[in-house]
Each structure stands twice: as C-alpha cells, then as structure tokens.
Amino acid sequence: MQAYFFTMRLHRNLVFTTIDSLMAIFNEGQYADKMVAFALKKDKRWGSHDRKFVAETIYEIVRWKRLYAEIAEVKEPYDRDNIWRMFAVWAVLRGYTLPDWKYFESTPVRKIKGRFDELSKDRRFRESIPDWMDELGVKELGEEIWTKELAAQNEQAKVILRVNTLKTTREKLRAILMDLDIDTITPAEYPDALILKERANVFLTDAFKEGLFEVQDASSQLVARFLDVKPGMRVVDTCAGAGGKTLHIASLMENKGQLIAMDLYESKLKQLKLRAKRNGAFNIEPRVIENTKVIKKLYEKADRVLIDAPCSGLGVLKRNPDSKWKLQPEFIDNIKKVQAEVLESYSKIVKPGGKLVYATCSVLPSENQEQIEKFLKTESGKNFTFVKDVKVLASESGFDGFYMALLDRKQ
C-alpha cells in the first residue's frame, strides 16, 4: 500500500465527498467507477492532486473494505459514523495526522496499527476478500497461485492505451503525448499498447477526442490479434458490449470487410457507434440480439467469430474492486451455464474452415479451459478442433487476468 507524499493534510471538502461516495457504494449498491466519475465533477476548482486524492481514496477504501471494517470494528449495513471510522483507519495506515474534527475524536491510532499487523497474517483480511471467493480461488488455482494472484489484483491498475492504427502509429502517438508531458512505455510483446508511466486523465486530450487511441488493458489487447483477422473478412463479435475489442478488430481489418457487433443491450451498441465514429472505424455493423433469429441468420456465415463471454470478472478485480463485494456464489454458477449456452449457440456462426475465439476476463479454470473441454464433447463442439489457448495471470503478466482459446471449424 503506497503512501501519498504530495500532501499529508486532510481537506474537509475532499474527505466529505469521499465519505458520501462510499455511503452510496456500500449501502446503495452503486458502482465505484460511476461514483468516482460523479464525485470528480463536484467542484470545478479542484486541481489534479485533489481529484487524485478523491479517486484513489474511494478505490482504496472499497478495495480494502473487509480489512478496514474489521480494524474499525464496524459491521454492515454501515451508517455514516461507521464509514468515518473506516476512513480514519485508512488515514492512520497512510500516515496522515488526523485533524481535530469531531469524527476523529475517539480514533485509537496505536490500536489500529497493531490490529493491521495482526490481521495481515490472514490472507482473507490481508487481501480483503469474502470467504467464499477465497475458498473458490484456492479450490480452482491452488493455495500458492491464488495467494500471488490476489496480491496482484490488489495493486493499482496501470493506465494502458491501445493505439488506433486506422489513424496513427504507436511512435507518432507517443510523441504527441510526450509533448503533453505524458510519458509512456512501449511494451515489445503488445504491439498496439502504450503504458503510462504515471496516471493522467488522457480523456481530456485532443488525441483522445480525435480517436487516436482507446484505453484498454494490455491483456484485453491480445484477444483481437488472437482471432487472426484479415482485411476483407466477415467477422462477428458476438458479445461486443461497448466495443473495446470490436474497435481493435476493425483496426486490424483496416476498415475492409464486414464486422458485425452483436449485443443484448442496445444502449451498449449506441456507445459503440459513438466510439466507432471517433475512431474512424466504418466497417462495423451493430446488431441487437432481440431474439434467436438474429443469430440463426448468421449460421455458417462468418470467417471469424469472437465470443468474449460474460464471466465472473475475477481477472479484473484491480479495475473493479467493488465487484468483490457485489459478486455472489450463485452468480458464478449461473454464469457458467450462460457461457456453455453462448458457446453452443454462437459457435454455429463460424463457417467451415473458419476460426472461433472464446475469451473471458476470469482466471478460474471452470470458466475457461474446462468450458472448452466440455464444449468440444458436445454435438456442436465435434465440428471444431482445439488449436491453442492462453492463460494470463495478473501475478505473471502485471496486467489483467484473461483467458482465450482458439478453435478451428472443420471443413
């Protein structure tokens, strides 16, 4: 856990905004990223340090909720005083001197540090995770890998850009950003990626508004390349969402050919349309999956099909720390059934001789290679041969946890 050295004083309006946001996340089921975005609009006068404090503090307290609640001796549902007590724990562990506000009057500073040392010996508190999730991780990945993976998932996520090669090159974009004092690293094994050395709000840059890049994790950037698309093909992204991977596929297709982006939610495809326009990606055709007819029309018509399947998201906890508290064991059981269904149904879109990629942002074998093994034994699966798969662990890559499997449809 890093300390913040730029200011060790707590500012009242920043702290109050943080407390309000945490109340909404913990008690009203609001999403952390939405509440952070909302909080940052609160005061136009805040500088970058103020905004950084608010965003990072909210995420930190969400991330370590179980540990801080245990040290603060508070239980859900949290009232406002409980949240103040958790905030005080965060502040003490971060090395802040607590101001003489009434909220901090009875904060046991020395006891907090002692409890932290004591609880840190237990992985469930140290990594701040629900018991059921910890048990599931151990069962699926084993004690050693799961322990490393959890520690990696509790680190702050890096900001990673994907260069939009329809409009620019990695070198040109790097130079443009350098002029804005945004310094980046070019990782050799991720040809479209730029990693920011320090966090910055890249969405405010003209380069973003002009569609020169998208923000996309390096692991997620592997998926479109794994699909092995070529200009002129017919490609179907079956679970496109707001289109992060769709846009990458479009750039690899050089705008040539047909790229059908499907999703159950029209609102997500509307976002994709806006992003595609900004990216200059003109070969994308959004289609809402209103019924099974939409899928059946495409049976055996596509050269390439991507199934970026709905999943537990246990590979991207560092980006979505609140999902640790929102996920329920029954959701994971249900999502596995959904994964098997989409594999069964959407695989039929691949034409003989075509390729299918199944991908998730989970690290659980039961959502990944075990789904593929089961699928290959089904009637539909017998039409496919397994080519290769890639298992990405956050603890090994430094990026998100991901899985992708490539299958060939027999001629």
What's the gyration radius in Å? 23 Å
- The SSE string, one letter per element, is HHHHHHHHHEHEEHEHEHEHEHEHHEHEHE
Structural class: alpha/beta
Strand arrangement in the largest pleated sheet:
7-6-5-8-9-11-10
Helix content: 40-55%
Distance N to C terminus: 54 Å
* Number of E-state strands: 11
- What is the CATH topology descriptor of the largest domain? Rossmann fold
Number of domains: 3
Largest sheet properties: 7 strands, mixed
The CATH superfamily of the largest domain is identified as: Vaccinia Virus protein VP39
Strand content: 15-25%
Which features would summarize this protein structure in a list?
Alpha-Beta Plaits, 411 residues, alpha/beta, globular, four-stranded antiparallel β-sheet, Rossmann fold, 15% strand, 19 helices, N-utilizing Substance Protein B Homolog, Chain A, single chain, 3 domains
3D structure, described in words:
One of its GO terms (molecular function) is RNA binding. Belongs to the class I-like SAM-binding methyltransferase superfamily. RsmB/NOP family. Residues 149-410 form the SAM-dependent MTase RsmB/NOP-type domain. This protein is of the alpha/beta class. It has 3 domains: 12-128, N-utilizing Substance Protein B Homolog, Chain A; 160-215, 2-Layer Sandwich (Alpha-Beta Plaits), CATH 3.30.70.1170; 220-409, Vaccinia Virus protein VP39 (Rossmann fold). It is built from 19 helices and 11 strands. The chain has helices at 12-28, 32-40, 48-63, 65-72, 80-93, 109-119, 123-126, 131-141, 143-153, 170-179, 206-209, 218-226, 244-252, 266-279, 292-296, 323-326, 329-346, 369-376, 394-397; strands at residues 160-163, 184-185, 193-196, 213-215, 234-237, 258-263, 284-288, 302-308, 350-360, 384-392, 402-409. The protein has a 7-stranded mixed beta sheet, sandwiched between helices. A 4-stranded antiparallel beta sheet has the order 2-3-1-4, covered by helices on one side. Strand 6 (258-263), helix 14 and strand 7 form a beta-alpha-beta unit. Helix 1 runs parallel beside helix 3 and helix 8 (131-141) packs across helix 9 (143-153). The model is unreliable at 2-7 (pLDDT under 50).
